[in-house]
Design goal:
With 179 residues, the protein is mostly helical. The protein has nine helices and no strands. The chain has two domains: 52 residues, Arc Repressor Mutant, subunit A; 118 residues, Orthogonal Bundle (Tetracycline Repressor, domain 2), CATH 1.10.357. It starts with 6 loop residues before the first helix and ends with a helix.
């Protein structure tokens, strides 16, 4: 029979989750774990004791963070009945999320190498875009906009966001998607 987790251990785990979200959202998925521990006010040993490694920490925090952003993206896309406009709103919102949330931006760019739960949740963001694109193409949207183009646009945006996006970058990407 296992003993219940001590209250201080539960508190430290929650402090680490909150700190990891804050650090990874602002500095990206590769931010040093020492920074996460320092932000949480605990030792790096405490971080490793609770999560074991970076992948397990990411797998613990990313699904919830990505689900919240997916809801935001879905709501933006569903505010119109026009299938083409839904794709534009989806892209605009994904690009806005990537600009403000380095964790999700990096996760979308490194999808194949993510831990299982994190990858599944990020795949839902891509899956929504694929469904919206298929619907828009069924309604006469450009055949140039397909699933591969979607992934390429998201990857390109992630790469550019790491260095700070140039003025009107998101409008350029959406214009490319319309072509």
């Amino acid at each position: 029979m296992s003993r219940p987790t001590r209250s201080d251990a539960r508190r430290n785990a929650e402090l680490l989750r909150v700190a990891a979200l804050r650090v990874f959202m602002s500095r990206g998925i590769d931010a040093p774990l020492d920074d996460v521990a320092r932000e949480a006010g605990v030792s790096i040993g405490t971080l490793y004791n609770h999560f074991g490694n970076r992948d397990r920490l990411i797998d613990d925090i990313l699904p919830g963070a990505a689900a919240a952003q997916l809801a935001r993206i879905r709501i933006a896309a569903e505010t119109t009945d026009d299938p083409r406009e839904r794709v534009e709103r989806y892209l605009h919102e994904v690009f806005a999320v990537q600009a403000s949330d380095r964790l999700l931006s990096d996760a979308l760019a490194t999808l194949p190498s993510l831990p299982a739960d994190a990858a599944r949740t990020c795949q839902e963001v891509i899956g929504l875009g694929r469904r919206l694109i298929a619907d828009a193409r069924d309604h006469g949207a450009s055949p140039l906009l397909d699933e591969d183009t979607l992934v390429a646009l998201i990857l390109a945006n992630s790469t550019v966001q790491r260095g700070g996006s140039p003025k009107d970058w998101d409008r350029l990407l959406i214009t490319l998607a319309r072509a």
